[in-house]
Write a structure and sequence with these properties.
The chain is mainly α and about 160 residues long. The protein has one domain. About 75% of the residues lie in helices and about 0% in strands. It has seven helices and no strands. α3 runs antiparallel to α4. The longest helix is centred in the C-terminal third of the chain and has 26 residues. Its main location: membrane.
Length: about 160
């Protein structure tokens, strides 16, 4: 298998893994701590491989996440498209931030994602979520350095083989 094909399968595989990770059930007390995996993985690829990630891919991945999760159709598509738009807009700055600043930027993006989700849910008539609902972006930001380094290391190893 040539490098380009392997790289494409690695890219698709990480996105599918993120979608499937979103579906993993957790006990009720741990559910607020579940990070939004598709956003984290898509954000990694938006920062590292601008030519592969665009708004269309973010929208399609969001529609897939909506179908997998059973959410309001277009809800996650809107959220992921907004996240990728901001990430691509500030890509040149975000890539060269030290890891702690990049983590804070990821936290800001994930909080923006939660605000968008809150707006969509309130407009659709759902009740306002509890305060524990805001824990997830902080968990995602705490996991960001480890996820980034893991995916980057695996991507570099694939390139070397």
């Amino acid at each position: 298998m040539n490098r380009q094909r392997l790289s494409l399968w690695w890219f698709i595989g990480t996105l599918l893994f993120a979608l499937l990770s979103m579906l993993v059930p957790l006990p009720a007390p741990l559910e607020p701590f579940k990070p939004y995996w598709p956003a984290l993985v898509l954000l990694y690829w938006a920062l590292e491989s601008e030519d592969r990630v665009g708004l269309g891919l973010a929208f399609l991945l969001g529609l897939g996440a909506d179908l997998f999760d059973g959410a309001l159709l277009g809800e996650q598509a809107l959220r992921l498209t907004a996240l990728v738009f901001i990430a691509l807009r500030f890509r040149s700055r975000l890539r060269f931030f030290p890891m702690w600043q990049q983590t804070l930027a990821v936290l800001a993006l994930l909080l923006n994602d939660r605000i968008l989700l809150l707006i969509v849910r309130v407009l659709s008539g759902a009740p306002v979520p509890p305060a524990s609902w805001w824990i997830s972006p902080f968990v995602g930001a705490a996991l960001w350095p480890f996820l980034f380094l893991l995916l980057d290391d695996l991507r570099m190893r694939m390139r070397l083989q």
